[in-house]
């Protein structure tokens, strides 16, 4: 007789076997190909589905509403058969039996319409919703649909890109509304925090609007930065930036046109999670845009003091985009040297001469814009050289990759996607949560609470 393998689900009540369900009865033959080794993808999915069906059959015996009296006439209810309801597990879809109830008053005739959704406010397992959310954070909604269906082997309507979008919307908006409730009571206070605020422009769906700006913020404590390549033999020039890694940070992001209320509230929450108190000093780095400074200003009164700095990363990039003749390039470098060493007035005074001698109109325009940019942010230009030599932060380069990841990687890049503010905002909430590692701690609760809460 050939070898066989049999998989059985057994149901016990008070230690007594009451039911057996054969899930698999398979004859074993000699393995001639690696594709015959173990269960293939389809067989694994079918096996999981069969096991789930056996478990759901047992669990369904207790599935019924808690309503005892008729909502129409007040009479007592009685059981009246079963109704099949859709349930979507992580890797498979099922129909589950739910007990139906009927009014004892024959004249009333009210009958319940039971379902998994009516019992739990959703018919999707939270682990599936969490998986959909995580996929959509890093891929387009259609890509997420394809990947999830590939994992499940069979195409599933529940993995439709429109449903995935709705899941992102529900979970992201829940996070946005409940962040303030997550601040632990045992956070250790810190003396200083670094705050970087930046923005990214997204293509707009709305007619007549080419783009809109989403804002993002990263907050971390200086002691939470490690420099893997830092050693005594490292030789740095003035413009060199030592690369480091932020071990602990909290992020905020918003795409809403709400007078910055959302990004300001989330920035405050991020700062509190990083240990901000009324005694904390904040060093804020921005690219010089007023909307970014407004977010920083919202922390006034919540901390001890704020040092505002136009970060050197953006200044250096603006200088880098200007191409001049050798003689003028040397003059521009001396101007840049003045800015680097905190001599803003002297540096700004050199612009007119360089602009006048520039022969290319495009370069004149860029020089004029750079002059205006530095002049408008003159009060936030510091002695970068002195700060750098003493180990103080001067650049947003550490957090720039986080800003890039929060907004540009998923919402821009090569995807040519168009967004509404309301569509981009919940996605940014989830990405900010993931970047902060809050998703690892609260992700399962976010999804469960968001998908099972009763809609207002």
Overview of this protein structure:
By secondary structure, this protein is α+β, with helices and mostly antiparallel strands. It folds into three domains: 1-123, no CATH class; 126-178 and 440-452, no CATH class; 193-437, no CATH class. It is 42% helix and 20% strand. It has 16 helices and eleven strands. It has helices at 41-59, 116-120, 126-138, 141-152, 161-178, 261-273, 290-297, 312-320, 326-340, 344-349, 351-357, 361-376, 384-389, 397-411, 421-435, 438-452; strands at residues 3-13, 16-28, 77-88, 93-103, 192-203, 211-220, 225-226, 245-246, 250-254, 281-286, 305-310. The strands form four sheets. A five-stranded mixed sheet has the order 9-6-5-10-11, sandwiched between helices. A two-stranded antiparallel sheet has the order 1-2. A hairpin with a 2-residue loop joins strand 1 and strand 2 (16-28). Helix 3 (126-138) packs across helix 4, helix 5 packs across helix 16 and helix 14 packs across helix 15. The termini are far apart.
Q: What is the tally of helical segments?
A: 16
- The percent range for helix content is 40-55%
Overall body shape: elongated
Structural class designation: alpha+beta
On the 0 to 100 scale, the average pLDDT is 88
Oligomer state equals: single chain
List the uncertain runs. 230-241
Number of domains: 3
The percent range for strand residues is 15-25%
């Amino acid at each position: 007789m050939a070898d066989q393998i049999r998989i059985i689900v057994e149901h016990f009540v008070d230690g007594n076997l009451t039911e057996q369900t054969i899930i698999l009865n398979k004859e074993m033959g000699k393995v001639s190909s690696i594709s015959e080794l173990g269960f293939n993808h389809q067989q694994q999915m079918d096996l999981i589905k069969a096991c789930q069906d056996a478990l759901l059959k047992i669990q369904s015996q207790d599935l019924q509403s808690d309503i005892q009296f008729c909502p129409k006439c007040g009479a007592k209810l009685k059981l009246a058969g079963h109704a099949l309801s859709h349930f979507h597990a992580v890797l498979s879809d099922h129909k589950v039996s739910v007990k139906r109830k009927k009014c004892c008053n024959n004249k009333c005739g009210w009958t319940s319409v039971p379902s998994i959704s009516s019992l739990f406010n959703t018919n999707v397992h939270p682990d599936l919703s969490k998986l959909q959310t995580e996929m959509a954070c890093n891929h387009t909604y259609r890509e997420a649909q394809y990947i999830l269906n590939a994992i499940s082997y069979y195409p599933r309507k529940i993995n439709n890109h429109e449903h995935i979008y709705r899941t992102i919307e529900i979970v992201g908006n829940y996070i946005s509304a409940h962040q303030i409730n997550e601040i632990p009571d045992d956070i250790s206070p810190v003396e200083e925090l670094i705050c970087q605020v930046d923005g990214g422009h997204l293509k707009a769906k709305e007619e007549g609007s080419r783009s809109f700006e989403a804002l993002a913020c990263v907050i971390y404590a200086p002691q939470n930065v490690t420099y893997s390549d830092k050693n005594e033999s490292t030789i740095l020039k003035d413009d060199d930036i030592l690369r480091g890694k932020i071990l602990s940070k909290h992020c905020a992001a918003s795409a809403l046109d709400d007078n910055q209320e959302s990004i300001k509230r989330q920035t405050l929450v991020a700062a509190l999670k990083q240990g901000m108190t009324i005694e904390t000093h904040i060093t804020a780095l921005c690219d010089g845009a007023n909307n970014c400074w407004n977010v920083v200003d919202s922390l006034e009164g919540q901390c001890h003091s704020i040092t505002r700095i136009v970060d050197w990363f953006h200044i250096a990039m603006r200088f880098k985009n200007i191409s001049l003749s050798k003689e003028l390039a040397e003059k521009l470098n001396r101007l840049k040297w003045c800015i680097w060493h905190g001599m803003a007035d002297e540096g700004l005074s050199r612009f007119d001469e360089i602009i006048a001698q520039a022969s290319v109109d495009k370069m004149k325009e860029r020089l004029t814009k750079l002059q205006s940019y530095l002049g408008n942010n003159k009060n936030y230009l510091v002695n970068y050289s002195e700060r750098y030599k003493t180990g103080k932060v001067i650049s947003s380069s550490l957090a720039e990759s986080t800003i890039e990841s929060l907004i540009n990687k998923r919402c821009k890049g090569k995807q040519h996607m168009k967004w509404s503010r309301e569509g981009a905002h919940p996605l940014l909430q989830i990405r900010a949560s993931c970047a902060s590692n809050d998703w690892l701690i609260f992700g399962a609760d976010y999804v469960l609470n968001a998908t099972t809460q009763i809609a207002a």
